[in-house]
Specification:
- The chain is mainly β and 283 residues long.
- The protein is 0% helix and 59% strand.
- It has strands spanning 4-14, 19-34, 48-64, 70-86, 102-115, 126-136, 146-160, 163-174, 200-210, 216-228, 241-253, 258-267, 271-277.
- The protein has a 13-stranded antiparallel sheet with strand order 1-2-3-4-5-6-7-8-9-10-11-12-13, with no helix packed on it.
Length: 283
């Protein structure tokens, strides 16, 4: 793949963790594939290649509620991408692909979060639940109006002195005006990020980490994702997209609890390896 990207971010904690700030700037040139709603293209071909070149800017602030573990906040994100489809066959494209080549999207988001993790980097215990609703509006600088939401539930349980069990459940929704490259997708290690997309997506995963020395760890993980292309009634438990794998970590900072390493993951369609700093599950 000829994809590449570069960016910078700042994650700040202020006033004894009463205020959290995240700032991100990122530019990328990506070569991707679109497999159609639910991962099944209703065309004579099974996928369409496309490029996505542009940048993302994100600003986010969270404030703690009194002395609780509850945070409320807001964010603003702006994205500008040039997209170009590539295919050899003379096809009548579905409506979701017939859109301007350059699209600017901008949103204001509201966030509610409950966080008891012992560290935000590589947790050993605690729970993190986060709900975010993003409103893309022309008044904010967006070329089109649409809505997206996401729910993130993650927990870490120390089973014994050297073992930590992590559990994750993600649920995503986007309305039918969402650009095809911004549709929710199954975000599971071992599955290509654009392989299974739809308006409703649910992903679950379990990860077991074994800290066999003070700094070195081994881990294994297994998860699955479900997609409903256009209607929640299309979400069927017997159509799970499974993936799993193993990896290792090294504790590079005992003060901040940061572990770094590599994961190797497999699914029915793909094999991939990942360089991971902190938790593989993001925020």
């Amino acid at each position: 793949s000829n994809s590449w990207g570069a960016g910078a971010f700042y994650n700040g904690i202020f006033l004894e963790d009463r205020l959290r700030y995240l700032g991100v700037g990122f530019y990328s040139e990506l070569e991707l594939e679109y497999f159609g709603p639910g991962g099944e293209f209703q065309l004579p071909i099974d996928r369409i290649e496309y490029s996505l070149d542009g940048f993302v800017i994100l600003q986010e602030v969270l404030a703690r509620v009194a002395d609780t573990d509850v945070f409320f906040g807001a964010n603003y994100q702006f994205m500008s991408f040039d997209n170009q489809l590539r295919f050899d066959t003379d096809l009548e494209l579905p409506d979701i692909l017939t859109q301007p080549r350059n699209i600017k999207t901008a949103s204001a988001g509201i966030i509610a979060q409950y966080d008891t993790r012992n560290t935000t980097f590589t947790p050993d215990k605690g729970f993190n639940g986060r709900f975010e609703a993003d409103f893309f509006e022309k008044a904010l600088g967006s070329d089109r109006t649409f809505f997206k939401s996401q729910l993130r539930l993650r927990g870490w349980v120390p089973l014994k002195k050297k073992f930590v069990l992590g559990l994750r459940w993600d649920s995503d929704f986007a309305d039918d005006s969402t650009p095809f490259y911004m549709l929710p997708s199954v975000g599971q290690r071992g599955i290509s990020r654009t392989r299974y997309q739809g308006q409703f997506v649910t992903t679950t995963e379990a990860e077991l980490r074994w800290d066999f020395t003070r700094r070195w760890s081994l881990l294994g993980f297994l998860g699955s994702g479900w997609v409903a292309a256009e209607d929640l009634n299309q979400l069927r438990l017997d159509q799970a997209n499974l993936a799993g794998g193993a990896g290792f970590r090294y504790l590079i900072s005992r003060v901040f609890g940061i572990r770094m390493g590599t994961d190797f993951a497999w699914s029915e369609d793909d094999f991939a390896f990942y360089i991971v700093a902190g938790t593989a599950w993001g925020r």
